[in-house]
Amino acid sequence: MFEDVTDKSSRLVERLKMVAEKGKLINVKRAFGTFTMDVIVKACFDTDIDAINNPDNKYMEYGSRIFCRGDELGEKFVFQ
């Protein structure tokens, strides 16, 4: 698993470098959210979704639906 986290970290660094070289702004919360999703999905399902370079994939969409609902259901799912 350490290798997976290292790989995802390297991908994130490369992505941040690419954005910085272009002089663009980056949503840091979203960037680290994609990193987190990449690590979790790889650890739990042994699947590489590359959310860092493809932040609009289905895993990110469904994760946002669960955790960003704006009601108590997401909180109950996470904290209970």
- In the predicted model, the low-confidence regions spanning at least 5 consecutive residues are none
Mean pLDDT: 85
Give the SSE string.
Answer: HHHH
Largest sheet: none
Query: Helix coverage percent of residues?
Result: over 70%
Structural class: mainly alpha
Q: Give the total of beta strands.
A: 0
% residues in beta strands: under 5%
Question: Can you tell me the overall shape?
Answer: globular
- Rg estimate, integer Å: 14 Å
- What is the CA-CA span between the terminal residues? 26 Å
Tally of alpha and pi helices: 4
Notes on the protein architecture:
The protein is mainly alpha-helical and 80 residues long. The chain is built from 4 helices and no strands. The longest helix is centred in the N-terminal third of the chain and has 20 residues, at 2-21. It is globular, with a radius of gyration of 14 Å. The two termini are 26 Å apart.
Short description:
By secondary structure, this protein is mainly alpha-helical.
What is the strand and helix layout of this fold?
Elements lengths: L1 H20 L6 H18 L12 H10 L4 H8 L1
Helix pairs in contact: 1-2
Keywords:
80 residues, 70% helix, 4 helices
